[in-house]
Design brief:
The chain is an alpha+beta fold. Helix content is 29%, strand content 24%.
């Protein structure tokens, strides 16, 4: 309200003072909306990273060395765990049906005796004596390992045998 209009209507100084005491602030028009959008995206990103981290943490599985499993005081992280080692030469015996029994020893350290593994199922094609294997299962009270899954490890430089026609 201008001074002339305020005095013309008989308002006097009080109307003029109340208008001059209120300074007008110039705000960017979408500042609050931008801040809310940035905060929202930040929350979404943090939530997504937390979900990915929890999913990866639940699905990562490491294997124990057989020498660690037979050591005194060994406590696995859960009932089902993995053991990675080498199948002992001459230890594979087929019982009845798909039941297979074999021993697993440590690659790196000497062990007093290897771990006896029992697996009732189909073994992978690359499973052989002297080869690396990772077995998933549970440790029985008698010290045997009851495997629910057997994974055969192989040499990373694997080359299949190729029969060329001119070499017959």
């Amino acid at each position: 309200m201008s001074r002339r209009i305020a005095q013309g209507w008989g308002c006097g100084k009080s109307a003029l003072m109340s208008e001059t005491l209120k300074p007008k602030r110039i705000k960017p028009p979408h500042r609050n909306r931008r801040l809310a959008a940035i905060a929202g995206f930040g929350i979404l990103i943090v939530g997504g990273v937390a979900l990915i981290a929890s999913a990866l943490g639940d699905n990562t599985q490491f294997f124990y060395n057989p020498s660690d499993v037979v050591a005194e005081g060994f406590v696995p992280g859960s009932d089902t765990f993995r053991i990675g080692g080498k199948v002992v030469e001459g230890s594979v015996t087929r019982k009845g049906g798909l039941l297979t029994e074999f021993s697993v020893a440590d690659f790196e350290r000497d062990m007093p005796s290897p771990i006896m593994v029992l697996h009732d199922g189909v073994l992978p094609d690359l499973f052989r004596e002297g080869q690396g294997v990772v077995v998933t299962g549970q440790l029985a009270p008698d010290g045997n390992f009851i495997a629910s899954e057997v994974l055969a490890k192989h040499d990373e430089n694997y080359q299949p045998k190729i029969n060329y026609q001119d070499e017959k």
